[in-house]
Amino acid sequence: MIKKGDTIPGIFSVLVGMLTMIYIFTNEKMVVMNAETYGGIGPGFFPFVCAAALILFGVIMIVQGIKQNGTVDYFQMTPEKKENLKLVGMLALFCLIMLLAWKVTKMFFLCLPIYIFAMNRLLKRSWLFTILFTAGMTLFIYGLFRMGFSIRFRP
Amino acid sequence: MTLELLMEAFMGLLKPSIFFYMGVGVLLGTLIGALPGLSATMGVALITPITFWLDKADGFAMLMGLWNAAIFAGGITAILINTPGTPASITQAWDGYDMYKRGQGGLALGINVIFSFLGGMISIVLLIVLAKPIADFTIKFGPAEYALVALFGMTMMIAVSNGKVIKGLLLGFLGLALSTVGLDPVTGLKRFTFGSIDLQTGVAFIPVMIGLLGLGEVFYQMYDYNKNRAAQEQEARKVGLSLGRVLPTAAEMKAWLPRNLIVSVIATVIGAIPAAGGDISAIICWGNSKRFSKEGDKYGHGSAEGLAVSSTANNGVIGGAMCTMLTLGIPGDAVTAVLLGSLMMYGLTPGHSMFSEHIGFTAEIMVLMVIANIMFLIIGLATAKLSAKMLNLSQPTVWAAVGVLCIVGSYCISNSFMDVVIMFIMGILGFFLKVYDFPSGPLVLGLLLGGTVEKNMRTALIISQGDWSYFVRRPISLVLLVLIALSFLYPVIQVMTAKKKTATDSETV
């Protein structure tokens, strides 16, 4: 699928660095160097150094990736791995939906069991196990965190 | 650290709640360590949010119990199914599994418990003896030194990032960049908050750890799951060979003890080096012991002595790692990074203040470590033969449980939904970091130490009125600068030496 070696993370690093630079230079209070006060450097100095480093090392990684010329393959896509990657994507999606539902409904103890149930079915656990695990885990979280520590779970 | 102070701390800790929470910690640690894929770091990161709701001493009792037990329990899977439960147990598999196949599984498990205890205890004694003088030395530190000590900690992590120097540097700076989110430490200017009130306090450290090491690890394990490999491990668990006796004989103990006392000291020193954790310690100690032992040829083929050395070495780092963390505020390994984050959230600043105004609590931490060792020795020996049963928990069950605990744990630290969002983003990032073979340690250290570096460096520059030579004119900061330069140059020299050696070898051929 992706045989770009270190190029992809390199591009991401350069992007993050450039976005940070844009933030610094479009915000007039983010002073990088200030000869008059604060020991010669301003609030933008450290973010600037980090952004510059991210761009520099990102470029190095892109060059490394190009030199690798397809020999390094981090995503070695066997049929099993493809299936696994789909599962990872689905689990991440379930997690995201759960967080959104929790934020919107404010009902954590309604969203949680649905999430646990969906996660277990995704992982191909039996119906009986899924029901028992969902009930057990929800009760455990409710008992320990809601009853024991009085956490309200209101985002 | 006086004996009276330690005794006072011990008497203060003689409460049922301490033993209850430590017992829970030891049991959880044993479970976490014994399950392949769950590390001590992940366990400590997941449990830390719970400890914020407990009394400080109770919370640390649980964390100490979990940490100490998880490291030793990593050896259980190494011995019984040839799969290290934690990276620190890798050398235990080399000897322990062969012993198990020979019908000496019980003895291997016993050695694991006893010598993990020995390594842990010696390193704690060294921590008690050495921490105070090191902390006293830090009185001479000003902002320049604190900034450079933190920077040194970060460069060390990069230096030991297994040849992935560029990747380590990139992530170190990404961590530093993340640490700049929130209010500027000098001017109070809002940076990268994008109007969010939650982000004004910065990116919280614990949710980042939970995301990277918890959810990210679950995603990666799901991606890397291989049905055939899992089936083989399942078969290995079913074998159930006879375990035999658990305790070594007096003669065996006498033969192994001197070597392991030396290993304990070396492991403590390795543990004190930032980023050098139990895995590095175990490999160095096991390798050198093999070289100097009369039965070195048996190492790696079921040597009880080799297993004892490995067990001592991986728990021996604990005291050293705590020493660096408590005195200098630099985590010795990933677990102490989480503990450092916990200390900071309790409002405690590692360094000299831990040995002046908070010395009582520091003494309590040390005593808790001793109690945790004694507790896992007793529980470990009593349940050595039962531990094989714990391995029957399937990976999908663990993934589901960790997936839920990551969400709950990251929320309940400060009842912040933003923390859960950060944890989720870090989970996705953690997955891609593992796939693209990035060492996540530098990111963690960058985030954790970034604030210290920035605040102290800018304070130093304000004191010196913008004169950068201030860092060179102060003797301690000069030494630290040299050390930073060396730790940056070390990987470069290593690569050059390796290239030269390869060239010489090919010429010889």
Quick description:
The complex is a heterodimer of chains A (155) and B (509). Chain A is 70% helix and 3% strand.
Account of the protein in words:
The complex is a heterodimer of chains A (about 160) and B (about 500). Chain A has helices spanning about 5-25, 45-70, 80-105, 110-120, 125-150, and strands spanning about 35, 40. Chain A is mostly helical and about 160 residues long. Chain A has two domains: about 1-75; about 75-150, no CATH class. The model of chain A has no long low-confidence stretch (mean pLDDT about 90). Chain B is an all-alpha fold and about 500 residues long. Chain B contains 21 helices and two strands. Chain B has helices at about 5-15, 15-35, 40-50, 55-80, 90-100, 105-135, 145-160, 165-180, 205-225, 225-240, 250-270, 280-290, 305-330, 335-345, 360-380, 385-390, 395-410, 415-435, 440-465, 470-475, 475-509, and strands at about 180-185, 190. The model of chain B has no long low-confidence stretch (mean pLDDT about 85). Classes of the chains: A mainly alpha (about 160), B mainly alpha (about 500).
The amount of helix of chain B comes to over 70%
* Beta-strand fraction estimate of chain A: under 5%
The chain pair forming the largest interface, with residue counts per chain, is: A-B, 65 and 61 residues
Largest β-sheet summary of chain B: 2 strands, antiparallel
Determine Rg of chain A (CA atoms, Å).
Answer: 24 Å
SSE sequence of chain A, one letter per element: HEEHHHH
End-to-end distance of chain A, in Å?
39 Å
Q: Unreliable segments of chain B (pLDDT under 50, ≥5 consecutive)? A: none
Order the strands across the largest sheet of chain B as they lie in space. Answer: 1-2
- Secondary structure category of chain A: mainly alpha
Oligomer: heterodimer
Arithmetic mean pLDDT of chain A = 89
Query: How do the strands of the widest beta sheet of chain A line up side by side?
Result: 1-2
Low-pLDDT ranges of chain A: none
Please report the number of helical segments of chain B: 21
